[in-house]
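Reviewers of the previous submission asked for a worked example of the structure-prediction workflow described in the proposal, so we include one complete record here. The input consisted solely of the amino acid sequence. No template or homolog information was supplied to the procedure at any stage.
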Amino acid sequence: MTRPWRGTHLAFLTCAVLLLSEPQAWRRSSGSHRPLEGCAVLHSPGLPAAKKSWLRTGMFVDAMAGPKTWKPCRVLHVTTDGKVCHVVYTETNNVERNVDVKDRIKATRDTFARYEASRLEESSLVPGVRVTGVVTKLDDFAAFVDIGSETEAFLGYLEANLSDLKVGQEVAGEIAAHRSGRYQLAAEGTFSSEDKALHRLHAWVVDADRFCLHVNVEAPGAVDPVQGVVHANEIRDGYVGDARSERQVGDEVQVRVLEVDVPSKRLVLSMRHDYSNAWKVSTDTVRQVTSLPRRKLFKATVEVETAAGYLVSVDLLGDRDPVRALLPAAWAQPPPPIDSKIRVRVADVDEAAGRILVAAAQSSAGKKKCLRPRRG
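From that input alone, the workflow returned the following structure tokens.
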């Protein structure tokens, strides 16, 4: 299936969380698949017991498509009261909205087993991990995607042309960040590209005041330039008393996206140095590191905190000089102090980009075995 991703830069968008509440009784049917006995009480591992709507986004169920006619489908969305849902029929890929759960939806014998088998462990969903999912909802700013986790994921309008997507469509990408209780997705290959992973965009200054620079940003996925703001403390390292003394109207600048202010439809940006060139290593070094066991722990020294995480020197190659690597902030909990000695393991190696990513000893990053294949 074609992956309709467009652009390579990240935008941090807010999105709604689907809350599932209130009990909903199951309705028996004389169709080809009968619901489970005792379905009012839910005993499937990992799912709420009693007093909760049994239906979940991502479940494969049967929907009544006509008189005594039941067809397999996947649940895309469930209302907060559990009474209505949206589904996509697996045989035709047609989407039907506002389906009455009580009268037209029933579980099959393998609904819950299949749902559990398709779920991903939250600890495995770290930046750079590749995932696939199904678009469950579209709005002007984002596409919301079920990637097989209990936490909703979304794809921002700066990352893809949302007009090329449709509800029920399968997409693939990478975890970019976990913010405000949701996973931000990026196009495949983003995490291995320095410019893409650090969200660099070209912009030019259109106005300035004492406290910030106002810029227009060339954003892939957006037809017109997007408005952005760079606060004084994000123009450069050190104290900036007046932003007007740093840049003039018309100046071209390189910026990184920190977040998206959805109500005002503008980007919050930074121009500060991200130290990204400091953790590039030679091709020969990368190849040697590739052969190292992923579970082995190595001694490392935390050098500096960067925009992408922590720059560390790791004793990866025995008597040779320490190797520079990046310890992403998501893989370093709790945050290590500068100059501290820690133990890390190799989480990912990108030979083409000359990048080595490591994870702190207590992190679960890089344990690919946690990613289960999607079924169906």
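The two ends are 15 Å apart (CA to CA). We consider this example representative of the routine output the project will generate in years two and three.
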